[in-house]
Design brief:
This protein is mainly α. It has one domain. It contains 18 helices and two strands. Strand 1 and strand 2 form a beta hairpin. Helix 1 runs antiparallel to helix 2 and helix 6 runs parallel beside helix 11.
């Protein structure tokens, strides 16, 4: 049975998923405690993350396991190569380079309980209204998945796709809308793993600058999708079945986003990742208690630990494996005297990185690989951290749209039967149309704010 395993002959089965969920809850608590209490060992939270990954390993798909093993093996080989040349490995960085991002993702997972997706296999009740159709529904679905996805992450896609697929299989035009609208969030929202990575790897970067320059790319993407619907580029738009989004439910993204930005503006002691990790559970628990009382809150928290958190196996594998790869690259470049192939990270270099990320993503190489290479390279030169974060977030958004093996395209493929290869290929024109907008914004940043020489 999934979620259970036998630890030995004659020994009782271990409830793998609940134990993994408890490990992840403890990881979040230890990570937050470490922010306020220096006495907390730096490796405590990363060890809990790795333990959770070990428990959930068998539940990962084969491509995810292979990718993680390649990352870890490559990172370990580079660490050994650097050690031979006199650069000892940093154990804390190797095990936990991306662990704060995982704590943030685990925290916002609690927000899923406020917008529970309906099971795609449950029958449609007789009194349930038929899904609306037409261009107006297309627009509501477009903006709905984007606005909710900006805070509750890929759960917004699952929420909508589950409902859409209950009566008939998810159509390609529906899956394309979900994929494109959701990946546009990655240009600016700190609640997305890729943006969290961009902010974490660029100390001193500003999420407000990320919103200022990544936001226009996302808005351009949404405008392009609206034009697709009006110009006939969405097949059979008159019969497009969409999700009945109720925008009065946007109180959650508004409250949480406002709380994070207010806290960030009034304190300089904590990163955006830390603020999200602390504030997201507070907002969610308060809302759950108000909605369901003490008993309802207990049920929700039990589901959070036993069901929702154990679904993070893919994120654990991706970010922990990439952390080992990144630590190996840092060690190699340190052993080479901090060699870098460029002396300035400007709009030209950033534009090349965007193009390179799209190209490598088409070859099914995840954007996190290219970013893992760029981060240690930037450590050897003077650069603007906010500009680097903008470039990294744009790279992640473009890469995930066209990569058949990205999380969003794999979810739409494995859960709903849509071809991830068709989604990746179909998103190429969409992405290439937005690329000049992104490049123009990088040059605008350089012109307005200047970049270190």
């Amino acid at each position: 049975m999934p979620g259970n395993s036998t630890v030995g002959v004659g020994l009782p089965a271990v409830p793998v998923r609940p134990v993994a969920g408890l490990c992840l809850v403890t990881m979040v608590l230890v990570s937050v405690a470490g922010t306020f209490l220096p006495a907390v060992p730096a490796v405590a939270a990363p060890l809990l993350a790795w333990g959770s990954l070990a428990l959930l390993w068998k539940e990962l798909g084969r491509p995810q396991r292979v990718q993680t093993l390649v990352f870890v093996a490559a990172g370990a080989l580079m660490l050994w190569w650097a050690l031979v040349r006199g650069v000892p490995p940093d154990i804390g960085q190797t095990l936990g380079q991306n662990q704060p991002i995982l704590s943030m993702l685990a925290s916002i997972t609690l927000l899923r309980l406020l917008n529970q997706p309906v099971s795609p296999v449950s029958p449609v009740s007789d009194d349930e209204p038929e899904l609306p159709r037409g261009f107006g529904t297309y627009l509501r679905s477009l903006f709905g998945v984007h606005l909710f996805g900006a805070v509750i992450n890929i759960s917004a896609v699952v929420l909508m796709a589950d409902r859409l697929s209950r009566e008939e299989p998810l159509r390609l035009n529906q899956a394309q809308l979900l994929s494109r609208s959701f990946t546009a969030v990655a240009f600016y929202s700190p609640f997305i793993g890729g943006v969290g990575l961009a902010l974490a790897e660029t100390p001193g970067s500003s999420p407000l600058m990320l919103l200022l320059f990544g936001g226009p790319v996302a808005l351009s993407g949404l405008a392009l999708l609206v034009w697709y619907g009006r110009s006939g580029r969405v097949p059979d738009i008159e019969n497009f079945r969409g999700y009945p989004v109720h925008f009065e439910s946007l109180w959650l993204p508004v409250i949480l986003g406002s709380a994070v930005l207010t806290a960030y503006a009034t304190t300089t002691a904590y990163t955006v990742l830390t603020l999200i990790t602390v504030l997201a559970p507070l907002v969610a628990v308060t809302a759950l208690a108000w909605r369901g009382g003490r008993r309802g809150l207990q049920r929700s928290l039990r589901e959070f630990v036993q069901v929702q958190l154990p679904q993070m196996g893919g994120e654990l594998a991706l970010f922990l494996g990439a952390g080992v790869l990144g630590a190996g690259l840092v060690a190699v470049f340190a052993s080479a005297g901090n060699w870098v192939p460029f002396t300035r990270f400007d709009a030209w270099t950033g534009s090349l990185l965007l193009v390179g990320c799209i190209a490598t993503s088409l070859a099914c190489i995840h954007p996190i690989v290219l970013l893992s290479v760029m981060v240690p390279l930037l450590q050897g030169i003077t650069h603007d951290p906010s500009f680097a974060a903008v470039v990294f977030a744009m790279s992640w958004g473009f890469g995930c749209a066209v990569n058949p093996m990205s999380g969003i395209n794999l979810v739409l493929s494995s859960r709903y039967g849509t071809s991830n290869w068709a989604l990746g290929r179909g998103n190429i024109p969409f992405t290439l149309t937005l690329l000049p907008v992104a490049i123009a914004l990088l040059y605008l940043y350089e012109r307005v704010f200047g970049l270190p020489l």
